[in-house]
Queue: 4 jobs
Job 1
Amino acid sequence: MPHAAKNIFRWVVGPALLLCSGLVAAQSSEWTVTAKNKTELSRASETIELSLQQLAPLDQPDLTRIHVATSSGEELLCQAVDTDYDAYHKPDIVIFQADFQPEETKTFTVRVGEKQTYRTEQFRAYGRFVRERFDDFAWENDRIAHRTYGKGLETWEGEPLSSSTIDVWSKRTPRMVINDWYLSDDYHEDHGEGADFYSAGLTRGCGGNGLWADGRCWATVNQICR
């Protein structure tokens, strides 16, 4: 299973809008899932989740071998994920994504195959500690990237900085860029893929924590490693 910090999918935040009807037998090694957009809105890259219990009729405990295809036979990118963090890191759900028009219903085929292997260009989310600058942490999906400051930055002689800010890196590409941008060390300039355009500094940035009291903002210390 890909490490959680390298999650294949861009996670969808918001109320569940898809109704999974369950598994219906198609043949001994193949099953179908029906999902419906219950809203009058278009839903792009909506995440569908299938649990270990739902997949039990396939009689395959290794969820990394589960494959999902559209009704026309096109195989979709899917991932087995460990959500209960058991001692063996055993996946207990399978997730995949699809686009839905308003009130659209789609049917997917689920089968057992070879263990999933992923190519670099398929990853849609990634994150890591930024050892290039102490213990900052950076993460991204296929739309945007962020960074937050680590504890080590608070006592750095070169530029000590304590801030709960969430820094924003604007992207113009769906590919993962964190490693390449840090490697070139020129991510404040846009070379066609976007850049770190904002000086977050002591601000809250995009989502940093702070408490407003006595006419001022009382910010937390650096978020990571606390």
Job 2
Amino acid sequence: MYNRLTDFSLQQHPALKQAYLDGRTVITPNPAHHARYADKRNLVRLSDVDGLRTIGANEAEISILQSGVPHTFEVRPEMNQMLWSNRKKLFFKPNSGYGSKGTYRGEKLTKRVFGEIMQSEYVAQYFAQPGERSVTLADGESVLLKYDVRCYVYQGQIQLVAARLYQGQTTNFRTPGGGFTLVRAVG
């Protein structure tokens, strides 16, 4: 079964959860894989230097993670004032979200949406400015687009490297000249 419900832990669908636990159905994304690879709370763990040391990460590994994973922490009600005061430096992501749904750049937050975030399961991550690239459109116009690079991995081996070009606060496929693009390794 392809899980378009986005209830990745199947908490809202007990019959389906039981069928999965009993081995009577195969679900993708697999709940265990989603928890291991896509739950945004993993970003909290990956940016926690002391926690990484506790599980045996060495200083070189920690340094690599610090350079690539912006500091991330769980949103808790007692952080309300601190988060509101620092919101312009933060990006808010739902723990079990996908495809940028429910994500908010702090500087664009209204009090109402901030209140909803404070009542939900979110992480806050320090904003990392995306890279930009000049792209020439079919009509010859040049535009500056943001990009992110993705590595698609299977069994520990990179299968594909791709980038997404976009405008706005999150990636999308509606931007003229945007979408997936080739990544060429040079050097």
Job 3
Amino acid sequence: MPPATNLVDLASPEALASTAADPSALAPDNVAPDSAAQPAVLRKINDFVELSKPRMNFLVVATTLVGFAVTARNSAEWRLLPPTLIGTALCAAAASTLNQVWEHRLDALMARTRMRPIPTGRISPADALVFGLTLALLGAASLVLLVNPLTAIIGGLTIVSYVLLYTPLKRRTTLCTVVGAIPGALPPVMGWTAVHNSLGLGAVALFAILFLWQMPHFLAIAILYKNDYAAGGFRMLPCEDPGLHATSRQIVLFSLALIPATFMPSMLAMAGSVYFGAAVVLGLAFLAFALAAARSRARRDARNLFLASIVYLPILLTFLVADRLP
């Protein structure tokens, strides 16, 4: 779980990014904690917390909240919000942890990830596996018992698609980013289904917005860290597209597709004219950054596109919630 895909390093990517095509790509994991200043038990707890990537999963919880807020109407529905957010956060933490168990040998090869808890030996792969599976079970159980089975199924699908599909595909195909964007786009759908216990066009609209946003966002990240990805053997598109021509085309195409996708909430009477106007302005501004990055194919413009993406999404979603229709 992106996704979106958390946003530290450059304007804090792990605080806002996706779970999905490895939002941790900009996480500065190459700095070990100050072990001398902490008791051993506290250090161990901090290491397990680090495995769960709480900053990265902030976006997961935030987009789940958006999916919930745009459709919840009465106090009985709003009472479902805390267990929905807790269950979703546990599923996201499980996906992050299990991903690191799978990739810990590769993490040791990359500068940005070599100081993570497992590569450094601070946590064993076996202990991390137990931790990740426990989080997954707790997340699924809390959603089944306190929310509804459909939301729990989608939470489980998020974990499975991220860990068992996206994670191994990163070393096999450049399409991994597309696959990884699927679990990153599911959290707002979970917010929707928590209220309705069913899917609908509104859930499709939320999924489309998050899915399409992730593509230029994470392609920009992949440009910035293509050497690190190559060192780990990951087949991100920029690693196999030296001139960045194919990467640039995808950035522009997905940014273009994002604009009409953001109109869907207004077309479905989920939001009003204020949101629609904001979607137009924000979409065109984001497209301008995408075009600049595609034209120059320079690291500087990729970084600007990344920064634009982490400004764009929270503003758009804030307008969506603020201008929701009754």
Job 4
Amino acid sequence: MTIVALAPMDLAALLCSRVCHDVISPVGAIVNGLEVLEDEKDPEMRAVAIDLIKKSAASASARLQFCRLAFGAAGSVGASVDTGDAESVLRGLIANERTTVVWNPARQFAPKNKVKLLLNLGLIALSAIPRGGVVTVDLTGQDETLALRVEAKGPNARFAHGVADLVAGQPESGAVDAHTIQPFFAGLVARDCGMEIAIVSEAETVTLEARPVVAVAA
């Protein structure tokens, strides 16, 4: 099956839609909180509104920081990125009482697009445990030999329908929209890095591994 190719304008538009989708909820909550502050005189209700604004602003900031590194052009072309920054934005994105991040790799500088891929794999893994659980990140090798592994464990852990096909660039419907652009984009980044992604789903556990494609001798 042929890999689907998106026009640059379509890819940019779909990624922008995805980012907007991620931040619209906390931004809307901030607006609601400000409206309460304008009209409410009761001190307790005002305190609740202020708390809502603080939490929503923190959530919006965390999501934007994650999107900047996972989808954007942080740093110059071909630059290396501190994996400590990737760990920070991933932890910020899923800071809640239901999900725990286990980040095993030592801090290092890694190729920017491989860090971008790692975060996108983390996002796919996170979506597979909507009820919470544990996300574990591992890196092996360095630079050209760098391999990525993200595992998610949680109740009824499973990938959404069609995720593997989207990552492979072969969506079942033959089309990509704002709801499916993220795993499709992860596959694009992997292929740009010369990597292939293996996706495994077992009872209570899902795993994504990205490894360099091994050239076959003629």
